[in-house]
Design a protein that fits this description.
It is a single chain. With 173 residues, this protein is an alpha/beta fold. Helices cover 49% and strands 12% of the residues. It has a five-stranded parallel beta sheet, with helices on both faces. Helix 6 links the parallel strand 4 and strand 5.
Length: 173
């Protein structure tokens, strides 16, 4: 009998460092987040996630591309290819906006990329959630008490993310 996978978490170090089984209160979660990953890396392994036949794939990727100055058009092209592969297999997807950092120059690019992704998701009837409202301060930076280094998240942030994502997953099922 095949074990049912309900949720696959797909992304970079922000995803990789979360204890998603605990955070989502679900033992049928697989975390495919990888430290340092980017949209090309996720594109190259998205079939691995699809082959698990999960009910939902939760995707957050792009911050490493932005920090390495990969052109926005290339990041967005990779993003669309990732999402399209998942959708074509009739797997539900929750696209999560790229999180802000404490680096204003990077955040300008985060906003541009998130707007591109949002428009794409809206025009293709794909669920996108943006947790930046809960993670950013009045200056539009990642709150200091939620980060360990200006980019990566601390345990308090994961609790907020897990709670909000769990609710989104429940609404998607």
């Amino acid at each position: 009998m095949k074990k049912t996978i309900e949720v696959v978490m797909l992304g970079d170090s922000l995803t990789a460092r979360g204890d998603w089984k605990k955070l989502l209160e679900n033992n049928f979660v697989i975390n495919l987040g990888i430290d340092g990953d980017n949209t090309l890396g996720v594109l190259n392994k998205v079939n691995q996630a699809i082959e698990l036949e999960p009910k939902i794939i939760c995707l957050m990727i792009g911050i490493n591309d932005l920090c390495l100055s990969v052109p926005l058009e290339k990041i967005f092209d990779n993003y669309k290819k990732i999402v399209d592969r998942i959708v074509k297999k009739n797997i539900k997807i929750i696209v999560q906006a790229v999180l802000l950092t404490q680096m204003p120059a990077v955040n300008k690019k985060v906003h541009k990329l998130n707007n591109m992704i949002k428009e794409y998701c809206e025009s293709n009837n794909i669920k996108m959630i943006d947790f930046n409202y809960a993670f950013s301060n009045e200056k539009g930076l990642l709150k200091e008490d939620l980060t360990t280094d200006g980019l990566h998240l601390g345990q308090k942030a994961y609790k907020v993310w897990g709670y909000k994502l769990k609710n989104s997953i429940l609404q998607t099922n």
